[in-house]
Design goal:
With 321 residues, this protein is an alpha/beta fold. Helices cover 36% and strands 19% of the residues. The protein is built from 11 helices and 12 strands. The strands form 3 sheets. A 7-stranded parallel beta sheet has the order 3-2-1-4-5-6-10, with helices on both faces.
């Protein structure tokens, strides 16, 4: 297929793009290159790869880049609670307004498949501390980031006609090494901070989150594109593995062998607006999705990167998490 990937130079996108190319798709990345073009250098000479520099808020540029696309994977966003809190106006413009505009223009352009990158943060705090939330659970966003994702999901599924099969993928918290590396994601951040800074502050270590490797996220997107449209259209899938739900304090225990001397401060909190364990049974049952890398694998992978001196310069102060 001819696939347009918005945000294809980002953390997930720079892993997804070579995955789609290897599967035989033609891939056009549309990205503002806020973090540079280096993450895409490995695919630049691939015959099936094309790149267009642009901003998803630019309606004319988006309309132009959609011409000829058969599928869209929409990753471009201001990602994460802290980034959205710092610039709420930008977050709404990119995550909400530009996303709805992209959906509208994609439908007008005759795009057959549209995959929207959403988040398990949409669940907020699970009502039953001993249970699991799934795709049918109530959505209770507690941050601007999650609010924009929920709003786009609703706009996506409220749309009628046009023949475009739409799918939302709610990613667990992503980890692992990517061409556009990020150290503000929990597993990556904890690992890097404990090894390099020898210090980590953990807030609310008892609270739960699900985790998934960036390469498995890319594989999940590929599976949705490869599936018959009637198996995925107007549907939502959590992306991850039920066994990869962890409390923050357990992550510290798993990292400890790589940083035995690190000082870890546990700051107790009784309340956390996000506390959820997620079921991923649906994507396993419907699409046969299975992860290939666990949190333990990801910690080892990031640790090797950090110990080799290949990570960014360590922070000068302890990094809260």
């Amino acid at each position: 297929m001819k696939v347009l990937v918005t945000g294809g130079a980002g953390y997930v996108g720079s892993t997804l793009t070579p995955t789609l190319l290897a599967a035989g798709h033609q891939v056009r990345v549309f990205d503002s290159l806020l973090y540079g073009s280096d993450p895409l250098l490995g695919v630049w000479s691939e015959p099936g790869f094309r790149f267009t520099h642009g901003d998803v808020r630019d309606r004319e540029a988006v309309a132009e880049v959609l011409q000829g696309a058969e599928a869209v994977v929409h990753l471009a966003a201001v990602v994460g609670d802290p980034a959205c809190a710092r610039e709420p106006g930008l977050a709404r413009a990119v995550n909400l307004d530009a996303s709805i505009n992209l959906i509208d223009l994609a439908q007008r352009a005759g795009v057959a498949r549209f995959i929207f990158a959403s988040t398990c943060s949409n669940y907020g705090r699970m009502p039953d501390e001993n249970g699991l939330v799934d795709e049918n659970s109530p959505l209770a966003p507690v941050s601007l980031y999650a609010e924009t994702k929920v709003a786009v999901e609703r706009a996506l599924f409220d749309r009628r006609g046009g023949g475009m099969a739409v799918t939302a993928l709610r990613f667990a918290t992503v980890f692992g090494v990517s061409p556009r590396m990020r150290y503000d994601l929990t597993v990556n951040e904890f690992t890097r901070s404990m090894i390099l800074d020898r210090h980590l502050v953990v807030f609310g270590g008892q609270f739960w989150r699900p985790y998934v490797h960036v390469r498995d996220v890319a594989r999940a997107v590929g599976l949705v594109l490869a599936a018959p449209a009637n198996r995925v259209e107007r549907d939502v899938f959590n992306v991850g593995d039920t066994e990869q739900n962890y409390q923050k304090r357990r992550l510290v225990e798993l990292i400890r062998p790589y940083a035995p001397d690190a000082v870890v401060e546990q700051v107790h909190r009784e309340e956390d607006p996000r506390d959820y364990r997620v079921s991923f049974e649906k994507i396993q049952r419907r699409l046969g999705f299975r992860i290939t890398r666990t949190v333990t694998d990801g910690i080892a992978e990031v640790a090797r990167l950090v110990e080799a001196g290949a990570s960014n310069k360590p922070s000068a102060a302890p990094v809260p998490a």
